[in-house]
Amino acid sequence: MALKITDQCINCDVCEPECPNGAISMGPEIYLIDPRRCTECVGHFDKPQCQEVCPVDCIPLDPEHVESQDELLAKLRRLGSGPDSSAKIVT
Ligand code: SF4
Ligand code: SF4
Predict the structure, then answer these.
(1) pTM score, whole prediction
(2) Alpha helix segments (H runs only) across the chain
(3) Which atom of ligand 1 sits closest to the CA of residue 59?
(4) Which ligand lies nearest the alpha carbon of 23?
(5) Is-contact 3 67, C-beta < 8 A?
(6) Ligand 2 mean position to 85 CA, how many Å?
(7) Is there a contact between 16 and 24 (Cβ–Cβ < 8 Å)?
(8) Per residue of the chain (91 residues), what is the pLDDT tens digit?
(9) What CA–CA distance (Å, rounded) separates 12 from 30?
(10) Looking at the chain, which terminus has fewer C-beta neighbours within 10 angstroms, N or C?
């Protein structure tokens, strides 16, 4: 399941550089998450890094983008941004 940024976002900029998949970018008014690139940080970290750093706690899971763990891992491989093949994948 991808995450989404709600309109509580205060544009503090801290989440964007934390995303290992480059899924976060500034939108017309607030930051946005590209659901095609968000893997819930699966394969990189054991917790969503954007949620960890957001000071106003405005990044919930997006129920419109429900995905299984396997689907998230498949997305990570498609993105080609995962750890190299010798690295352990954190699931
Ligand atoms: Fe990026 Fe991880 Fe946040 Fe998804 S959960 S937007 S992959 S930092
Ligand atoms: Fe918005 Fe939270 Fe990201 Fe800051 S960390 S830009 S408040 S979503």
Answers:
(1) 0.88
(2) 49-53, 69-79
(3) 3
(4) 1
(5) no
(6) 32
(7) yes
(8) 799 999 999 999 999 999 999 999 999 999 999 999 999 999 899 999 999 999 999 999 999 999 999 999 999 999 986 555 444 455 5
(9) 10
(10) C
